[in-house]
């Protein structure tokens, strides 16, 4: 026994040099990867403050290499000196931005509502639709995850034209809901499974209906899971490009489509491009940093038992 | 429709006995009316669109409203005729009706389109042409090339996995500011791939002035054109995609590492295993189930890869970076060729289903064998 204890402490205390080397390696790797993650973002943000010369000469550090300038933001009508003037570009940008907000919030909310209900039903009750049992229904929902957007895109293009949903926000909301529904169901199923059934049984004995028990007892407990699913759904919808590029043209265009269509005839205006890209990534970067905990919770749902 | 045995409460014993016959009749009546209304509106529309009658709606949208109302009637029917069991079915119905309407119908419709010669920009309209699209697909070198690219892109997931695992190990080590690093490492996942790939691919990796190109020159690569020859272009696309999605795998693996019991690692160390041995003989095998989940999910996402390619290279040079999705996208955007494009997409769907099913089978056997 005592020999084992000594063994243990001996292996614990390594030579100082080896310890230092491992520290240097670990922090070196961490800093390196942080650089890989942050440099493109840094580049995007700084480029929005550069003039043409600064871009083409590859200047990197503001105030040292180049003088920051509001050029990019002015071209969007969002710089301090132009924000109170009328600007068609800004109106356009705000329209696209609102399209993105409405479609992603709308789709995430709809997916959370119908996804949570379905996940709750699937974790609590046994269903049998014809020869489909719970496992089959769950599999049906989750298998939608495999469906590549390209399979639905062309049929939807034709169908949406027939039902006058082409280039509408509602049309996008419906498709995005479909896209994130499997993920929401996956997360919420995990969430509901972690809530003990006894709570609802007690509520039912106290005279609540099953829907009353769901809304008054289960929902408040499952709220963090819902937030997690919502954030993850938001990220996916906000960044979606494929459907938006195919199914929208003038009215319902979202931010990613606007970003991608910025090639002018006389080359690319880097500064305005960068300002636009910054505006496109900023909302999610802020949400992501503030609610990182929920994002991680959503992504790890069900993967670790 | 749904026969349930409740698990949450077995009391009251059988609520169906308590429902009066009049309520059941009401429920059935409601469902019958709604079904008839839905069918009637569809028939009217078909007659109108085929110009066999003059009354009808300009678009098919009323059919959607009718479907929604029918769904509501279906729910009411469940509650009215089956009481509490019906209320339980109500949890599942919205998602089920939604998914069926949004997936099953369009997919079936897609299979029909795939068998037609339909070019949206020509005036001849839709023409059924059987398997012509299929034969054309088999001899389409660009489609085969896109499929081959998908294989390469999927293989790149293994490299991403190694990097993600390394990052997860780093974050799981005894470090300061773990939370900060975690947020930083997670950031790429949240940013719009289109916006970032635009900024990175078109300016950071720009041949003349981009910092990445300058760095490459300093490292001794004289001609740092990231998107002009096929192999470098593919690698560039893989790198950009990896940048976005590595955090996704990293977070799952990190969760797996943190869920691992400390005792096992301690035991390995007590037995005198080096860090290297501990990793390969303890950590890695224990992490296999999580790893497999992460890799499979990542592959599923990878199979949808399109946006970066569309915005950056539009498949170029010469189709070298095309993914199946981006190729079909251009088939539609440039040539409005809906029929052929859909056939390609449907063939891809079948391939994906076969591949993913095989992958899941393989994975479950693999995990079982190792553990």
Mean pLDDT of chain B: 85
* Helix share, percent of chain B: over 70%
> What is the CATH homologous superfamily assignment of the largest domain in chain A?
MetI-like
Strand order of the largest sheet of chain B: 1-2
- What structural class do the secondary elements of chain A suggest? mainly alpha
Note the total helix count of chain A: 14
Uncertain regions spanning at least 5 consecutive residues of chain A: 1-11
Give the percentage of residues in beta strands of chain A: under 5%
Which strand-content bin applies to the residues of chain B?
Answer: under 5%
CATH architecture of the largest domain in chain B: Orthogonal Bundle
What is the mean predicted local confidence, pLDDT of chain A? Answer: 84
Helix-strand makeup class of chain B = mainly alpha
Number of strands of chain A: 2
Task: Give a short overview.
The complex is a heterodimer of chains A (305) and B (371). Chain A is mostly helical and 305 residues long.
Topology:
The complex is a heterodimer of chains A (about 300) and B (about 375).
Chain A: H1 2-12, H2 16-47, H3 52-56, H4 71-75, H5 88-124, E1 128-129, E2 132-133, H6 134-143, H7 149-162, H8 169-193, H9 197-205, H10 210-239, H11 242-247, H12 255-260, H13 270-290, H14 292-300
Antiparallel strand pairs in A: 1-2
Helix pairs in contact in A: 2-13, 5-8, 5-10, 8-10, 9-10, 10-14
Chain B: H1 21-49, H2 61-82, H3 84-114, E1 116-117, E2 127-128, H4 132-138, H5 141-172, H6 178-190, H7 193-204, H8 211-218, H9 230-259, H10 262-270, H11 275-302, H12 307-312, H13 324-335, H14 338-370
Antiparallel strand pairs in B: 1-2
Helix pairs in contact in B: 1-2, 2-3, 3-14, 4-14, 5-9, 5-11, 6-9, 7-9, 9-11, 10-11, 11-14, 13-14
């Amino acid at each position: 026994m005592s020999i084992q204890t000594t063994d243990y402490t001996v292996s614990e205390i390594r030579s100082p040099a080896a310890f230092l080397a491992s520290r240097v390696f670990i922090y070196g790797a961490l800093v390196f990867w942080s650089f890989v993650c942050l440099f493109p973002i840094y580049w995007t943000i700084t480029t929005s403050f550069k003039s043409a010369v600064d871009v083409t000469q590859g200047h990197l550090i503001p105030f040292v290499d180049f003088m920051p300038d509001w050029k990019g933001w002015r071209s969007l009508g969002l710089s301090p000196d132009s924000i109170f003037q009328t600007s068609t570009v800004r109106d356009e940008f705000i329209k696209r931005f609102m399209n993105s907000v409405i479609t992603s919030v709308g789709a995430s909310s709809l997916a959370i509502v119908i996804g949570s209900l379905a996940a709750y039903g699937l974790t609590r009750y046994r269903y049998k639709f014809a020869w489909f049992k719970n496992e089959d229904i769950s599999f049906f929902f989750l298998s939608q995850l495999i469906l590549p957007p390209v399979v639905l895109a062309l049929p939807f293009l034709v169908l949406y034209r027939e039902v006058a949903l082409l280039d509408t926000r509602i049309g996008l909301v419906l498709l995005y809901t479909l896209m994130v529904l499997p993920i929401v169901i996956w997360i919420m199923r995990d969430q509901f499974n972690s809530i003990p059934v006894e709570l609802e049984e007690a509520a039912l004995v106290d005279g609540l209906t099953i829907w009353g028990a769901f809304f008054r007892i289960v929902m408040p407990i499952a709220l963090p899971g819902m937030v997690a699913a919502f954030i993850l759904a938001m990220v996916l919808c906000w960044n979606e490009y494929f459907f938006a590029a195919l199914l929208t043209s003038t009215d319902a265009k979202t931010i990613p489509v606007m970003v991608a269509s910025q090639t002018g005839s006389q080359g690319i205006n880097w500064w305005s491009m960068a300002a636009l890209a910054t505006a496109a990534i900023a909302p999610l970067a802020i949400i992501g940093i503030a609610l990182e905990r929920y994002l991680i919770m959503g992504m790890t749902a069900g993967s670790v038992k | 429709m749904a026969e349930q045995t409740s698990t949450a409460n077995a009391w009251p014993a059988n609520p169906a006995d308590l429902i009066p016959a009049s309520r059941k009749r009401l429920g059935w009546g409601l469902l019958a009316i709604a079904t008839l209304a839905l069918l009637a509106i569809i028939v009217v529309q078909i007659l109108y669109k085929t110009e066999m009658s003059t009354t009808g709606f300009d678009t098919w949208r009323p059919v959607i409203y009718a479907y929604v109302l029918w769904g509501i009637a279906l729910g009411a029917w469940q509650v009215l005729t089956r009481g509490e069991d019906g209320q339980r079915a109500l949890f599942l119905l919205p998602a089920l009706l939604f998914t069926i309407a949004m997936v099953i119908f369009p997919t079936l419709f897609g299979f029909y389109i795939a068998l037609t010669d339909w070019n949206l920009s020509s005036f001849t309209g839709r023409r059924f042409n059987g398997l012509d699209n299929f034969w054309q697909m088999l001899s389409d070198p660009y489609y085969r090339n896109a499929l081959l690219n998908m294989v390469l892109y999927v293989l790149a997931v293994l490299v991403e996995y190694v990097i993600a695992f390394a990052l997860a190990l780093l974050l799981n080590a005894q470090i300061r500011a773990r939370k900060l690093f975690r947020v930083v490492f997670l950031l790429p996942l949240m940013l719009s791939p289109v916006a970032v790939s635009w900024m990175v691919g078109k300016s950071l990796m720009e041949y003349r002035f981009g910092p990445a190109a300058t760095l490459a020159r300093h490292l001794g690569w004289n001609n740092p054109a990231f998107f002009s020859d096929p192999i470098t272009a593919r690698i560039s696309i893989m790198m950009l995609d990896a940048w976005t999605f590595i955090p996704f795998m990293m977070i799952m693996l990190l969760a797996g590492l943190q869920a691992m019991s400390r005792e096992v690692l301690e035991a390995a160390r007590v037995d005198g295993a080096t860090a290297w041995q501990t990793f390969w003989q303890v950590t890695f095998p224990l992490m296999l189930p999580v790893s497999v989940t992460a890799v499979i999910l990542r592959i599923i996402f990878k199979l949808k890869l399109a946006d970066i390619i569309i915005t950056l290279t539009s498949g170029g040079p010469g189709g070298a970076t095309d993914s199946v999705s981006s190729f079909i996208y251009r088939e539609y955007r440039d040539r409005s060729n809906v029929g052929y494009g859909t056939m390609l997409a449907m063939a891809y769907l079948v391939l994906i289903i076969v591949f993913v099913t095989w992958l899941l089978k393989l994975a479950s056997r693999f995990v079982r064998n190792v553990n």
